[in-house]
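Case study B.
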Amino acid sequence: MMHSMLPVLAAFALLQSPAAGPKPDGFPGLPANHTPRVEIAWNRLYDTDALYALFDRLAAAYPNLLSKQVIGYSTENREMRVYTLTNSQRGSHEEKPAMWIDGNVHGNEVQGGEAVLYTAWYLLENYGHNQRVDELVNERTFYLLPTVNPDSRAAWFRDPNDASSSRTGRKPTDDDGDGLFDEDPSDDLDGDGHIVQMRKHLPGEGNLRLDPDDPRLMVPVPPNDKGIKGDWIMLGEEGTDDDGDGRANEDDVGGYDMNRSSASMWMPEHVQGGAGPYPLYWPETRSIAEFLLARPNLAALQSFHNAGGMILRGPGAESFGEYPREDLRVYDELGRDGERMLPFYKYMVIWKDLYTVFGGFATWGYEGLGAISFTNELWNDAQQYPDSSKSSIVPEGRKGDHFFNDALLMGAGFVDWHAYDHPLYGKVEIGGFKKDVGRVPPTFLIEEMVHRNALFCLKHAESMPIVRVAKSEASDLGGGVRAVDVVFENTRAIPTRTGRAAAMKIGKPDLFTLEGAGLEVLAGGFRSDRFRPERLELAEREPGRLLGERGIGGRSEVRVRWFVRGTGTARVAWSGEKARGVEARVELR
Amino acid sequence: MAVPLSACCALLAFVPVAVQDPAGAPPPQSSPQSSPPSSPPEKSDGPPVELLDNEALGARLAALASAHPECASILRIGFSRERRPIDVLRLSAGEPPPGRPAILVVANLDGPQTFSSAVALHHAEALALGQATDPRAKQFLESTTLYVVARANPDAAAARWAKPLFEAEATGTGVDDDRDRRDGEDPPADVDGDGVIAWMRWKDPKGEWTLDPADPRVLVKADAKKGQRGEYRLAREGRDLDRDETPSEDAPKDAILNRNFPHDWVEHGAESGRFPMDEPEARALAEFLLLKKDIALVITYGGLDNLVEKPKSAADNAPSNRRIPAAGWLESDANLLAELAKRYGERTGNKTKGRGTEAGSFQAWVYQHRGLWSLAIALWDMPTEAKKAEAEGKAQEPPGDKEPEKSGEDRTGTEEQKPPEARGGRGAPGSRPGRGEGDPKKEDKPSEDLGRLQWIDGAGESARFLPWKSFQHPELGLVEIGGFAPFARTEPPRADWDRIAGKQLDFLLGLGADLPRVSIEKLEARRLAGGLIEVEAAVLNDSLLPVSNKAGQRADASRPLKARLVLPEGAKVVGGQLQTLIRDLAGKSRRELRWLVFCDQPLQIGLKLDSDNAGEATAIVEVKQ
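Model:
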């Protein structure tokens, strides 16, 4: 099979690289003599426009492999862009099993966008030089949506923010029920471009005191009967009571969660905060759902978030129960490999190991669409100090963050406390860590993060089913009747139909057919025993057209026996939604 | 409360301007086979209750709006999947002021409930026409806004006037019902060419039905305990185009509009749609409801009911199960609903119970997720017993009502004898698993279908049942085609239409006064000493219904009532909040508020109440020195 493909590939590589000539093999992780066609700096983060522009550069450089599609528009009318990556000269995108990868549904969780970009870049730059990459590009489709929330991504880069703000979309929402919309956001009071924290000096009346070793930090005064009090209190996020209702920062921009909007186990706002008035209420969420529902070839899904270092799978809520065993086998295998590939990341079940999420997107990918789906939480603070043998000398918690910031960032990540005359609280101090500290990695660790996560995706993509006819043979039963035995094999870990898809009748069942001129199919069915051909689950009707609701399991076979009268060529075939169709010929003489 | 039927009759006495149907819609009973024909209409002085097709209904609403610009206007809220318009008629005496509460009436959301559109149109015409002369209509329209969606599901309704006649329920996305990788290849069809898609029964040892010994027109589930064996199969009339020995089991459309709303939406149900609010009609209605925050109460005329049969309820503080709230109405709301139900019974005498499921319904979404009052009304169902002597029914009528008991108000059951075997066990089109089936207490009673036939025979409504006729089916061989006619269970006898519509209108008019309306009962300010002023106020809700029901407080979907002091320059609040949000103000109750204000000048102090759907009020007082 691979042999017949090689000349095509060589020709293709030349076509793609007229100037540079053949690129050296093994770029992945092998840095010498490598010049990518599209140079991208992987030590920085890009706002919406810049991220889209980089994708456009890739599409321009690899026009046969990457194409742009606008699937909808965001609340602020930005394009919702899907980039489809596959070698369409080797078959159109919809006839191959597909993996969806997105990032940044939470506007502040930006680095998912770079992880999606890196996945595309890595595949494109290595195509033609690495057999496994070639298979991924030729035999699989990638639907890549770099940012689910282009509005808040833009706002997070553009406006004063902290690490957690701009998580929401930007449809005006009345969070405090006063009939006004987004009228009391946090405020960059001192105009320095950062939303940080406020603290106030109240000698003998506070609950905090300055850390004697580092006055940037405050420590709680333990409860005591000795009358010992602290000298400081925290006043929360930088801002004031803009609408005069007695509360500060209580009606910020937006105020909802587009990762609580999907149809599987969706719950209303009073059960699941941020869910909105009904599932897929916001244009961003609905455009993605419509796109995916129209693509039955979807077999794998990955969604990038930050932070904490997690490889998450559903269920999102305990009341769902547990996933079918055959699907858990796939999840566990990929999750375990993910833990190996992603230091400090843990493979976790959302409701059990994190918290309950109703209406999550990746859980819908599995529960609604039947595709094996993960959510990765990118970046873990522990990555600041990766050498566990030095744990005894590494400062803990915020002290550790300060040491890292001071020693490795020259202090650039922290706004030093400075005085400010607050309209409500009087003299206060404003200071704290900047938005790009804590939830995103520092510049020099971004490439490692996106590379490891991209390669986790590629492992997932390689696990999508590939079906082949492993064996096909005829045996003469006498009287002009022959038995045709065919073994259809799925060589990869993900079933052609997940247990979830089979149980809920998602999509279409697989089809196993035998046909041929001059042949009459008398009976047929699925064999349940390798050695006893009479053990057959006989089809009631249309024996030449067997329907397989359960498909072909991961790294499994389905054995079919047909009883045929006549002579000629029997074409036996498998077709399904999640893998390329295959067929073989059996001569009946 | 005395039933003000007289007022209603006065209203009905205004003969409408006859609005001619420009589209020239065919009369609904043009052919004896195309609808369940009825006895001639009862003589009535009120506006005619007319069953109109989409074009004629649209034209009538448009004509009403153009004839009555002072009180009626039309808003187009969307289009159906087949691009038919969905319109809302707004009725209000002039432009409603902010906060004036509104009622939304939604009809014909359930496809077969075409008659409900006639009732909704009747309401609109009676009010618009009565506005100028009838005091009750005038008062209603001056205090309450009424939105009428006379036909929420025009695609399904179109089947009512199409050939062949078919009781369409599904209008949305299809699934491969029989899982054969062929989509919609075996739909219901008019096999015998008589213009109606009815039912087929045929002998088959795999069948689970047998003839009712009491009446061979009726099939009952074979009961082994009675020595019965299944001998018949039953299905919608149709071919077996895919030759899988099951006819009419894979229609191209499967999603049912009233299963497509988010509350208890059944994921992966064939009738549910791909995701909640996927159906354009559902989304149009939902977006309208979200936009019009003046809506305090929704009435849905359809297959469901929560006024005749009490809905399931749970204590206000019932614990959640893994964060999911206990099912049903919250007790406080259920108690008020029961009061509305009592009034409903008194005014209408209607005892029609609902059929079908609440899961995924508009009615449930309105209450459970939006926290608004949601009244589900089933206008009529075919009685399951023959009309009885009049004395029995009379006791149920409100005093003073001299009208004879009508068969249409007889108790109707929910048992369903239609076959559940098709569509992979999801129930045949138009059928629902019956609650009565398998109930040991019911075993020896006549089946409900038998009762319906007895009612049909007694009432002379013979067109509602198509006699079984032998037919040589191209795939199945000898079958019989017949059974209950399309719309036989949803369109009441013609003689009852005006009375049903009139009584529903009477109930609707009464509801206007029950909606929450806030006022300032007291506002006092007095100077305590120097610049210190004490302000006291009482906010009153003098209606039956609370400013926000318990579900509304839970859902936090409507903004609360806002009470805000209005102070002159230089004055400031030194005690209390300038602005108070009131989330809970029960019916017939008041809330006291108190502030300390500092100002050393003589002055006036104001209080402003505003809300989305419970009215507005403003008061100003002089500070007592």
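Residues 5-160+255-381+501-512 of chain B form a domain with the Aminopeptidase fold (CATH 3.40.630.10). The remaining cases will be described in the next quarterly update.
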